[in-house]
Each structure stands twice: as C-alpha cells, then as structure tokens.
Amino acid sequence: MNDLIIIGGGPAGIAAGIYASRKKIKTLLITDYFGGQWIVASDIQNFIGFKSISGFNLSKALEEHLRLQSDIEIKDQTLALKIEKKDNGFAVKTNKEEVFETKTVLMALGTHYRKLNVPGEDKFMGRGVFYCATCDAPLMKGKAVAIVGGGNSGFESAIDLLPYASKIYLLEYANTFSADLTTQEKAKNSGKIEAITMAAVQEVFGDEFVKGIKYQNRQSGEIKELAVEGIFISIGYQPSSEIVKGLVELNKAGEIVVDCKTQRSSLEGIWAAGDISDALYRQGNIAIGDAIKAVLNIHDYLKGK
Ligand SMILES: Cc1cc2nc3c(=O)[nH]c(=O)nc-3n(C[C@H](O)[C@H](O)[C@H](O)COP(=O)(O)OP(=O)(O)OC[C@H]3O[C@@H](n4cnc5c(N)ncnc54)[C@H](O)[C@@H]3O)c2cc1C
Asked: Is the pLDDT assigned to residue 75 strictly greater than 80?
C-alpha cells in the first residue's frame, strides 16, 4: 500500500512529488500529462528565479526535477477516474483498469476548460471546435472564426488569432464585455473583430468539419448563423473535482474546500492544493507553495498514525 497518491502533474503535483520523495513518503504520482495549464504560455515572467521563460520550457524543467527524485513511482499518461473510501485509506482507479491503494491522497488535478454544452460541440471537438487559441490559432490561417466568451480569456484568444484568422466574430452572452479595457482595445483596434453581444449560442454545425455556428439574439429572439471554420470556446475553467464529488466538500464553483493552514479537505486522508482547491488566487507559484504545505502536513499526519 502507498502512503500517498498524488493526482496531477502540474506545478502543484510536481512540487508535491519532489517534497514527498525527499521526505521518504512511499508515493505514487498519477498524471495525464506533465506541466499543467501554463504549458501553452509563450512567456512567463513571474516564476521566481526566471526573468522570462516559456511555459513549455518551465514545465519541462519542473518535470526533469521531479524525475531526478529516486523515491517516487510515476504513472504518466494515466487518468485517475475514481476514488473510493476504504477502511484503512483509499482506492484510486485509473483508465488503465488499475487500482492503487493508499493511506492518503493529494488532489492536484487543477482545472479544465469549461464547455458550452450545445449540440455539435462534442462532435466537432478538434475538427473546428477548440478551447486553446494559443495552441490551435495557426490552424486558422485565412479562415473566419468565432470566439465564444467576451471576458479576458475570449479577448486573449482574439489576440492569439489576429495574425492568422481572416475574420473574427466575438460572441458574448451578456450585453457588455467583461475583459479589461486595455485587452479589449488591443484586440478591437485590429479592425478584424466583429463583436456581438447578447448572443446565446444554440448549435455548432458542419459536415466532417465545422461550417458554422448558430446563435440567438437574446434581445430580438432572432436566430442567426455565422459561417466560420473555427470556434474557440473561451468561457473559463472548471475545477477537475468530479472524482471526489460526494466524498469531500466542494464549494459552488466545484472547488475542493480546504483548511488553508494545512490544505486538508473535509474528509480525513484527502488533501488538495493548486487550482482545484478554493484558494483565493490562481497562480503557479501559489499552487507550488500550497502543495508543499500539504505534503509537509501529510508527513506529520502519517508520522502521527
Ligand atoms: C495561458 C496561461 C498562462 C499562465 N501564466 C501564469 C504565469 O505567468 N504565472 C503564474 O504563476 N501562473 C500562470 N498561470 C496559472 C497557472 O498555470 C496555474 O495556476 C497552475 O498551473 C495551477 O497548477 P495546478 O498544478 O494546480 O493545476 P494544473 O496546472 O491545471 O495541472 C493539473 C494536472 O493534473 C492533471 N490531471 C487532471 N485531471 C487528471 C486526472 N483525472 N487524472 C490524472 N491527472 C489529471 C493534468 O494532466 C495536469 O498535469 C497561467 C495559466 C494559463 C492557462
């Protein structure tokens, strides 16, 4: 049996793995991929110790640091699907039909892109429907695209798409855009963007690939179609906490509620750190600090046992 299973290979999971190994806690780290959300950032200027580094290079450096540790077992390209409470700890089930037992769990699964949940979204995912403009903007060279979401992430997506797309429709559900004004001006000054407010997206349509998007004008009730080959859904992030729903306390946003001194969740034996927790700020540096705090507390807990 493991003493600790860390789920997640972003900054929180990696930092936790390094500390757990150095504390000689018998640990298994399960992650889908290494690096975390900022892997797509072109330039990170606030990671302490680096004036400027790409998200990709930072993620690689963190992963290499983790892999130098001798006392940790790693299962990457693996998804944790379920956590079950057992008499003496927990069982973690993966998408590879494996079950791992552990005394404690650290949840470091971060967040994933929020979906629109309209017809056609799943069908065309990767075939015209995208969630990361930084990753997929180059595919849109010379094409008309729609961005759904008029907050900061929508306008950031627009800025990523400007060098490639021939035309950008920016659809917002409310009657104003919530992105900060500087970002809005930067995008709007390009002349390529047509901003549409009060738009409730109804459907994504196409054949093999996306051909357009249908939305309803919430003021007039009129249904309209835009002919686009790419749709970027930029309506924020959602904590990846589904696998502990019903097991630990979640807040309204779906974040795991933790005690901020120790990172303990409401259920003995489960800790959480990073963007999946109800921490006030979403930053890599903070995720790392909170994960380290969690592992030190897990170490004390295991010693106490
Ligand atoms: C574009 C962008 C730029 C950013 N720039 C900065 C910046 O400049 N400075 C800064 O401090 N922060 C920045 N951030 C924020 C920072 O990336 C996050 O705060 C940080 O990544 C949170 O770390 P985390 O480990 O909690 O979660 P995540 O980074 O979300 O990592 C979660 C990990 O869990 C894994 N995972 C998820 N579900 C499962 C599952 N079921 N089974 C197994 N593994 C799973 C994922 O594969 C991933 O490895 C940026 C974020 C973005 C999106």
From this structure: yes
**Ligand 1: residue whose CA is nearest its atom 1:** 41
What are 277-305's pLDDT values in tens digits?
999 988 999 999 999 999 999 999 999 97
Distance CA 267, CA 258 (A): 10
Domains and CATH numbers, the chain: 2-112+237-304 (3.50.50.60), 129-233 (3.50.50.60)
Distance 196 CA to ligand 1 centre (A): 30
Question: What does the buried/exposed string (b/e) look like for 169-196 if buried means 16 or more CB atoms within 10 Å of the residue's CB?
Answer: bbbbeeeebebeeebbebbbeeebbebe
For residues 125-129, average pLDDT: 93
What is the reported pTM? Answer: 0.85
User: What is the CB < 6 Å shell around ligand 1?
Assistant: 7-13, 30-33, 36-38, 40-41, 44, 46, 79-80, 108-111, 240, 274-276, 282-285, 287
Do the beta carbons of residue 263 and residue 276 sit within 8 Å? no
Residue 17 CA to ligand 1 center (angstroms) comes to: 15
Give mean pLDDT, residues 21-50. 91
The best mutation among 7, 14, 19, 38 to test binding of ligand 1, ranked by most ligand atoms within 8 Å of the C-beta, falls on 38
